[in-house]
Amino acid sequence: MAKIGIMSFAHMHAYSYAACLKELAGAELAAVWDDDARRGRAAAKQFGTRFLADMDRFLASGLDGVIVTSENVKHRAMVERAAAAGKWILCEKPLAPTVADAKAMLQACKKARVGLGTAFPCRYSQSLIDAREQIRSGAFGEILAASCTNHGQFPGGWFAKNELAGGGATMDHTVHVADVLRWILGREFVSVYCELGNQFHQGAIKTDDLGSLHLEMEGGIQVSHLASWSRAKSFPTWGDVTIEFIGTDGVLLVDAFNQKLNVYSDAAVKAEWAYWGSNPDLGLVADFVRAVDTRTEPAVTGMDGLRATEVTVAAYKSARLGKMIKI
Amino acid sequence: MNVALIGCSGIGRVHAEAVVKCGLNLAVVADKNQAAAQALAMDFGGEVMTDGLAACARADVDVVAICTPTPTHGLFVKAAAKAGKDIFCEKPFCRTVAECEEALAAVNKAKVKLFVGHVVRYFQEFEAMKAQIAAGKIGQPGFAKLYRGGIFPQGAELWFRDYEKSGGVTFDCMIHDLDWVRYVFGEPKRIFCQALMKAHAELPQDYSQVTMRMKNGVIATVIGTWAHPHGFRVKAEICGSGGMIQFDSHDAPLNVQKRQTGAGSGMIVPSSPVDKSPYQLEWEDFAGWLAGRNKPRVTPRDAIRAVQMAESALKSAETKRPVAL
Q: pLDDT at position B156, please?
């Protein structure tokens, strides 16, 4: 039984990972630590586990692995502490808001000889897995271009604070798709151009809520990506992950979460989409548990997290300088 | 009012129908491919000619409708203007801004009227979106994403495949959306573009991805595709501080699927069942202008600006740099 702890419930994904740990037969959510004791205590209570307010005590409590789901800028310090304590680590995306942080985290885990995974659950999305198989079978020829979106509703809180998130919607919503494209196409990104803006929340927040990225991958693959918090409060779901792949022998359009019921409830006033597809988070957490058990690297590595962070960081630089940036 | 229509395949057929439906007389149908002109005359009437320039010069013609491949637009606009005819020209106005300016100078000198068919300004769904925005339904608009395209078009003598002539999907098709974005959100500041422009003996592929920053701060991302194996789709999304609007042509009150034949399918540009087609509406607008009843929704300057935006997009695709507008 892999004993897993969760460090911080600042990121809402922590609640989903906790639920996955409860669901997996071979895993135990053994402890919660949070620098916000009230939040941590409430989460521990919700998931029927113990809360340890002291990080050292938490790390010395017999855990095999930890999931880090803090604010982006705190990832590095927590990962370094967990690595030093010999814990296997699954870190929420983006792995870090800066390349320097991400590299330091990889280094710390390498030195401590612990596994480091980046939480890219899209790799466990069945529609994306199927798309990858179709593309890799060669049935669509050579992929020449892709246009992508990762839109979301405005998450509020620390996500909109530069000092905690290291950026806005572009920081939040670029890495999933960047990772998926690397994984499906087996190519790296070479350059990016980005138009960045605070388009919807002027006055309310100081970070970007939209990034329109134009990227090139090895082999000249042309990619556009929209990262945003543009979905209205009245939108029927949280957002989307979509990719249109243009191949020499056909086109694939992935709308990864388009398995939904249209629900019209007078109690909710607005229309809602009830998702009924498989839960990608479960695959992600199951793989982490496997890695912990076998003392091997998680399938989605820290290096994958670093590569995605490099894309985001270059996008911000491009927007600042107004030109295409080499990655 | 006698109309001479030049260029009888593809979009020429659509305009012939609109001309007839808004009560104008289709007097001449001209195409260097006589069979194409004859086929059109069979359905909509008109005297068949093979010489477009001669059609422009005919004394009994009041209006010349130019539906030929883009590189010939300038030639026919100048000929029609010289003959004192009012002119309807299919978009894009010309292949370059320089040609546009030359053609417009001839129009102005002859004191005739020129209308360029940026028909998306007349599509009911696009007008409805514009009205929703104007009504404040989505608050302050901050972002637009437009998507348009499908299969690579055939065109007379497969002229679209010559990217020098057609400019590909960026110039020929996306120009609709570039114009509409400017129509709704005002002047653009800069444009960035990636374009495939792949040649292929059987079916070439073009796919264009553009982002524009408008002077008012709006970011507009536009995707144009001639890379799909079949079909045609239009999608639009406008997001603002207080909501968003989405449109998808796949949400339609009528869906038909015809059995595919061995010959394959050309591009069929869909339009929802409406009492008046957007093409008829633009012809009525043009005819109203000719009759002195109204100002047209599209001016020659609008059309030149659209060409400039599309030209700049192609320049950006080539240089991999944003191009200031």
A: 86
Superfamily name and number for B120-289+296-324 = Dihydrodipicolinate Reductase; domain 2 (3.30.360.10)
Residue found under tokens 């994306």: A128
Q: Other CB atoms closer than 10 Å to residue A263's CB: what's the count?
A: 12
Give me the pLDDT at residue A138, please.
Answer: 96
Question: How high is the mean pLDDT of chain B?
Answer: 95
Q: What is the DSSP string of B105-135?
A: HHHHHHT--EEEE-GGGG-HHHHHHHHHHHT
Q: B258 or B148: whose pLDDT is higher?
A: B148
Share of chain A above pLDDT 70, in %: 100
CA atoms within 13 A on the CB side of A229: 24
Residues of A in contact with B205 (CB under 8 A): 144, 246, 248
Best of B205, B210, B246, B314 to disrupt the A interface (most A CBs within 10 Å) is B205
A226 neighbourhood in chain B, CB within 8 Å = 145, 221
pLDDT value at A323 more than 60:
yes
CATH classification of A2-120+281-301, choosing from 3.40.50.720, 1.20.1070.10, 3.40.50.2000, 3.40.50.261? 3.40.50.720
Q: For residue B153, what is the DSSP state?
A: P
Confirm if A105 and A73 have CB atoms less than 8 A apart.
no
Report pLDDT for B38.
97
Environment class of A48 (CB within 10 Å of its CB; exposed 0-12, middle 13-18, buried 19+): exposed
Q: Find, in chain B, the residue whose alpha carbon is nearest to that of A152.
A: B239
Token pair of A64 as six digits? 């095999």
Quick one: pLDDT at residue B256? 75
Half-sphere exposure in the Cβ direction for B250 (13 Å, CA): 9
Which of A306-310, B113-117, B197-201 is least confident? B197-201
Burial B36-67 (b: 16+ CB within 10 A, else e): bbebbbeebebebbeebbebbbbeebbbbbbb
pLDDT band, very low/low/confident/very high, at B263 (cuts 50, 70, 90): low
Q: Is A299 helix (H, G, I), strand (E, B) or coil?
A: coil
B185 pLDDT more than 90? yes
CATH code that applies to domain B2-117:
3.40.50.720
- The two tokens of residue B143 are 């972002």
Residue A101 — pLDDT band, cuts 50, 70, 90? very high
Q: What is the pLDDT of residue A253?
A: 97
Which among A224, A234, A250 has the least Cβ separation from residue B194? A224
ipTM for this prediction: 0.93
Shortest Cα–Cα distance, B223 to chain A (Å): 8
- The answer to whether the Cα torsion of B7, B11, B13, B14 is positive or negative is negative
Residue A244 pLDDT more than 80?
A: yes
One-letter amino acid at A75 equals H
3-state DSSP assignment of residue B211: strand
Q: Which of residues 46-65 of A touch B (CB under 8 A)?
A: none
DSSP B235-288: EEEEEETTEEEEEETTS-S----PPPPTT-----------SS-HHHHHHHHHHH
DSSP conformation letters of A42-100: HHHHHTT-EE-S-HHHHHTSS-SEEEE-S-GGGHHHHHHHHHHTT-EEEEESSS-SSHH
CATH number of the structural domain A123-279+309-326? 3.30.360.10
Q: Which of A226, A251, A324 sits opposite B145 (nearest CB)?
A: A226
Provide, as residue numbers in chain B, all residues whose Cβ is less than 8 Å from the Cβ of A246: 196, 205, 207, 225, 227
Distance CA A30, CA A51 (A): 9
